[in-house]
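name: query_chain
kind: protein
chains: 1
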Amino acid sequence: MAEKRPTKVLLAKAGLDGHNRGIQLVGKALRDAGMEVVYGGLRITPEEVVEMSIQEDVDVVGISIFSGGLMTIIPKIFRALQENESTRSIPMVVGGILPPHEAEELQSMGISGVFGPGSDLEEIVGFIRQLVDSQGRG
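structure:
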């Protein structure tokens, strides 16, 4: 029986956002849980997120956002991930400073998970594991 590969997650900071402490903590928690983490870096464009997710063959994309532009940047990335013909659709989670009404809007659009400040790292790890298992990935 073939061994299951570790869950692979792309984490990136989209837009002009330069605050990366939260995403670094999430990345460490995911690595500590045995997942492979690809860090896309700061100020990554939506197009770069999609390109990296395809090149790296990730199971989940996680975007952290702290600055404005959330409701412009996130939907653009989400649509591109869902519409890309060269690969399967890739689930997406979002974290950062999110007004409650925007978090609800993101979830209604199809974002798999939304995590605000103070989210429990074990909860995030468990959510991503469950998401990947439910999608038959990893």
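note: The radius of gyration is 14 Å.
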